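If you are new to this repository, start here. Below is one unmodified record pulled from the training split, so you can see the exact layout before writing a loader.
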Amino acid sequence: MSRRYPRRRPPNLGTAPFVALNGGPEFTFSEAISFQVVCETQHEVDHYWSALGQGGEEGPCGWLKDRFGLSWQIVPRALFDLLRSPDAEASKRVMQAMLEMKKIEIAGLERAAAGG
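And here is the target side for that same chain:
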């Protein structure tokens, strides 16, 4: 299956050109091909989680499959910041909290970092 775009330009995903190929029925989606969406706020996390997960399947640690079977990880930038904490114990608590989540909740990560 192919789709033609005006002036032969592919669509953009944000500001980056995005090209996808349909390899036929013998090449299906797997977790080997996935996208990560880094979000600045919980509102963004909630938006993408809801929009991409509609008709799909939730997974652990911010992962979900959309209705087409494509895997996405919706991650708040705060996760990376909290994991880089100079306090190794706080970083471990943040990782443990994230491992217990489906959709990643910034407030829960912050509570874990604070020791609560």
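Two things worth knowing about this chain: The chain has one domain: 29-114. The chain has a mean pLDDT of 87.
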